[in-house]
Every structure is written in structure tokens, then in C-alpha cells.
Amino acid sequence: MKKALALLLGGTMLLTACSGGNGGEQATDNASEGGGDAAAASEITVWAWDPNFNIKAMEIAKEAYASVNPDLKINVIENAQNDIIQKLNTSLSSGTTKGLPNIVLIEDYRAQSFLQAYPDAFHELTGSFNPDDFASYKIAPTSLDGKNYGLPFDTGVTGLYVRTDYLEQAGYSVADLQDIDWHQYIEIGKKVKEATGKQMLSLDPNDLGLIRMMIQSSGSWYLKEDGVTPNLAGNEALKTAFQVYKEMLDADLVKPNSDWSQFLAGFNSGDVASVPTGNWITPSVKAEASQSGKWAVVPQPRLPGIEGSVNASNLGGSSWYVLNVDGKEQAADFLGKTFGSNVEMYQKFITDIGAMGTYKPAAEGDAYQIADEFFGGQKILADFSAWTERIPQVNYGLHTYAIEDIMVVEMQNYLGGKDIDQVLTDAQAQAETQLK
User: Fold this and answer.
1) Environment class of residue 171 by beta-carbon count within 10 Å: exposed (0-12), middle (13-18) or buried (19+)?
2) pLDDT tens per residue, range 239-286
3) DSSP structural state of residue 434
4) How many CB atoms are located within 10 Å of the residue 353 CB?
5) Whole-number Å distance between alpha carbons of 161 and 145
6) 325 neighbors 28 (Cβ within 8 angstroms)
7) SS3 (DSSP) at 157
8) What is the rounded CA–CA span in Å between residue 347 and residue 118?
């Protein structure tokens, strides 16, 4: 059952069914077949995706660790995220770790599916780093039964990127968008559209990232705190998020997009006035040099009428895991002495690749205090760091993407006129049936 749950959350692709037996125990039994093999003391392998972000960060970590243990060879292999998910599920469900790496990057939304399905396949990292040194919202998805298995890496802390020149034409300043709710955002958007002809944001109807941002800002999720039971019907934060989403569309504030390139084109071309998303979008915003000085970043709007909703949330983010294969001790030592404790390394992440981690001591460094002229001299990294501390911790659990497949369909039904309470009731019933 647990393996089936992992496959459900593992991605949109269909994976082969799991074989019988206890995958976790078999993974441990076959540890000698893993990426570390007999040469574990001198060589380890890392899998990650995104050569311009995660891979570069790991290469910087390699350089930093060379002064600690120059004899350890670290091989960093690029794999697409979906390929990593498929390879892990296929190998671990069959009970073998042959061909798998020592260290693997796993998205936080997916982590619990692997940890709960294959607990013996991962090496415990408790004691390798101090979890109190990391943003608290990262600890729940990377832990199991009170033990640390993932070392937190990057943050998906969100912000509202806004065109200050468009705001000014509508009679607003950046101060007017500080700590607002989504209803206020919509009202401002109407005035901006009236004054400039620009829509407020761009959305892909098949991507509910904005909904995720909204509900986490209220300490809510698609699942209850157990990380397994669907929490859709009667979820007031989710209901309000759906209603806000529809209000934006009804007010004609949304420029639809169907893929990543269209999303980027929306703000690089100047067609939209704001971008509510994770901080990782900063390099893409800055890619249009002609817009330098015309942008600012303010806290994400909170959900109106929801007690406890805050002006901070998360979208995305991943962490590092060590597989229970030969070389696990060396892998854990490497992570602990780099991503787990090296403040200077995190400064280099900022200066070299613009990557923000969730290691709190690093936020005191000079790199976080740099004024960014593209954003009118705003110290956006210091602001993002402060907002990270306010992100509510939720249990992403086992089924984020499986439930979103249901919610995408029900969102279209809602936009087509279906009653919101019926939408969430039907989604709840589908989730309970499909995720048994």
C-alpha cells in the first residue's frame, strides 16, 4: 500500500506496479549494490536536476568540502526530476539499490511518499546537522517519526513582484501593497488595468501553484495533519482560495498562459503588472534588463477572512537525502559540513547563482544585505529571508500531485458555474476513492 502511495505522488507519469515484499528491508539488504559500493570511503555519487541552480550549488559544495576531505571524490550527475522519481520508485519498489546514488535531491512536496514507502532505504541524518538552524517549515516534510532524513536546501519563499511604474500610473506606491489581502490585491488590479490597460498576472489553468501558495499561507493543505487523509470538503482556506482565483478571472485581471515560456513572456514583455510566485523567479524577472528600476517585491497577499492567514508562503523547494548504501557515512559527513553548516558557502550560492537556502545563520552574511538596483535598491534577499521565517509549517504528506490532478478538473467545473461546496465535496469523494 505504501509503495502504491509513493507511485501516486511520484509524478504525472504512469509507473509500473510495485513488486511484492518489503522494499525498505530489501533495499538495506542490497546496500552493497548501491552507488557507493566497496569504494565508499573514496567516492560518492549525487543525483540532482537543473544545471544552473541545484547542480551549480552542489559543485560549490564540492569545492568547499575539498578542504575538509580532499580524498573524497564526488560525482555529480544531472537527471531530470521526473527521471529521478521514476528511477527511485522503480529500484526501491523492486528491492534493489543497484545503480542508485549516495545522495539524491527530492522535492519537498514528494519527500514523504518516499520516506513512508521506503523508510529503510534512507540513511538517518539526525545529528549530522542542527534542524533548529533551518527554517521550521522545512523540517516536517524532511522528517519521519521525529527523525531527520533530509537536509533542507533551497526555499520556495514567495513574494509579490510588482511593476512600480504601473502602480504609480494607477495612483499607488509600493507601500500601498504591503501586507494586503487578496481582495485588496484585486481592487488594486482593477485600478491598474483601468490606468494602464495591463492585466495583473498570468496563470496556467492546469497549474494550481497559486492555490498552493494561498492555502499554505493559512497553515492549511490538501491533506489533514496526518498527511494522508484528504482535506478538501469543508476546508475554508481552500474554498476561499478557489473563490479568489475566480474573482481574479471574473475581473479580467488574468492573462492565461499554457507553458513556462508564455509565463515568462507575460512579465518580460510588460503585459502583466505583477508576478506572485517563489523567489526563484528573480533571475527570470531580471532577464529583461530594460525593466531595471521598475520592479519591487512585497509580501504575498494573505487570504481574506481566514483566521491565522499570514503574508508569507512557499512554492517549491527541495532537500538532500542519503540512500542507505555503502558510502552513506561519507555522504552524511559531506552534507553536514557543507549544506548543514557552511555559512560562507551559502554566501557563494547567493553571489554566484542567486540561490537562497533555508540555513538561517547564512542570512546574517553580507550577501543577503546587497541592495539590488534592478529592484530600485531594495534588499530583496534580506526581505525574502525575513518572510521565510513566517511561512506556516504544513504536512505536504503523500498525495500533493495526485490531488491536484483532481482539483484541476474541479476548478474548471467551478469556473463553469458549479457550486463551490459541491466542487469540494466531489473532489473529496474522488480523492478518498482514488487514494485508498
Assistant:
1) exposed
2) 999 999 999 999 999 999 999 999 999 999 999 999 999 999 999 999
3) H
4) 17
5) 38
6) no
7) strand
8) 35
